[in-house]
Backbone:
């Protein structure tokens, strides 16, 4: 597991323990079983999103140290 994934998981656990609904967005280029490319996600979309128990929405872009948003 890379550092960014580990950081995302820690954030997800912390938010969930506070009662937030947390959703992870997958981004990238993937391939079907027969080799066709499929692009998932939208550039600029946050890695994590969700809402509090009172309905307040939030969005988090997770980056490890030294990286910048794309």
Residues:
């Amino acid at each position: 597991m890379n550092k960014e994934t580990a950081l995302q998981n820690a954030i997800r656990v912390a938010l969930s323990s506070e009662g937030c609904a947390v959703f992870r967005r997958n981004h990238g280029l993937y391939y079907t079983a027969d080799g066709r490319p499929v692009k998932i996600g939208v550039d600029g979309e946050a890695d994590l999103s969700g809402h509090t128990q009172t309905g307040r929405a939030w969005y988090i872009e997770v980056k490890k140290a030294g990286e910048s948003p794309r």
Q: What stands out?
A: The chain has a mean pLDDT of 91. Strands lie at 21-24, 28-31, 37-40, 48-51, 57-60. Helices lie at 3-17.
